[in-house]
Design brief:
This protein has 7 helices and 2 strands; from the N terminus they run αααααβαβα. The chain is mostly helical. Belongs to the eukaryotic ribosomal protein eL32 family.
């Protein structure tokens, strides 16, 4: 036997080998208790095989000088391995709290081509920086002598179709989702099968109490919310 594997057959063979290899009569008289059987089963189920592979020659050279009882040595090995990898069957093991915050993980958006914005700066109305009565919002110049309309060099750029975004990424947020407006928790259920494409955005008139219900529903269904902190945070 070149290697010892943590299986039921290997446990029995190793026990017999420790008894007869080191010729310890007292070890053969000891019997397995219920606690020892439970420990061996937990080792069999939860400890990876790579952690318990021990060559026979190295095991004998390490254990022979201080060997007195084969079963005591094997019991210590089992206890050390059990401490190394804690079984989920233990009652003292901390368990995650139940609740809507951990019932489902946030689903990532579908893979898409990179979002490219061809013109990030806003288009300001011509001469809005000179006159207070001229609003910065864009208006196309109509004058017959307008240098902006005639596109003279050095003048402000006008909006045109060439600045349009790719159709595949149009109206897409940086996270890769498109926005879907919700007003109540029932609207979130519409995104259950589309949570990788659309993200929920809570309406501006929704109360704080209903916002809490919407966010809890979205977390339970794995739906992303673009404005989860609206009306729910206070200034310090």
């Amino acid at each position: 036997m070149a290697e010892v594997l943590p299986t039921d057959a290997a446990v029995f063979v190793l026990h017999q080998w420790l008894i007869y290899e080191f010729q310890s009569p007292s070890a053969a008289e000891e019997s397995l208790s219920n606690a020892d059987v439970a420990r061996s089963r937990r080792v069999d189920e939860w400890v990876p095989a790579s952690k318990t592979l021990v060559p026979k020659s190295r095991l004998a050279s390490q254990l022979a000088p201080e060997f007195h009882s084969g079963w005591k040595i094997w019991r210590n090995v089992v206890e050390n391995v059990c401490h190394r990898s804690q079984s989920p069957l233990d009652d003292n093991r901390p368990r995650p709290a139940s609740g809507p915050h951990n019932t489902a993980k946030m689903v990532a958006a579908k893979k898409h081509i990179p979002i490219v914005k061809k013109h990030k700066k806003r288009f300001n109305r011509h001469q809005s920086d000179r006159f207070k009565c001229v609003d910065p919002s864009w208006r196309k110049p109509k004058g017959i002598d307008s240098r902006v309309r005639r596109r003279f060099s050095g003048q402000a750029a006008m909006p045109k179709i060439g600045y349009g975004s790719n159709k595949k990424t149009r109206h897409m947020t940086p996270s890769g989702h498109r926005v879907f407006l919700v007003q109540n928790p029932k609207d979130v259920e519409l995104l259950l099968m589309h949570n990788r494409t659309y993200a929920a955005e809570i309406g501006h008139a929704v109360s704080s109490g209903k916002r809490i219900d919407i966010i809890a529903k979205a977390k339970a269904l794995g739906v992303k919310v673009t404005n989860p902190k609206g009306r729910l945070t206070t200034e310090s």
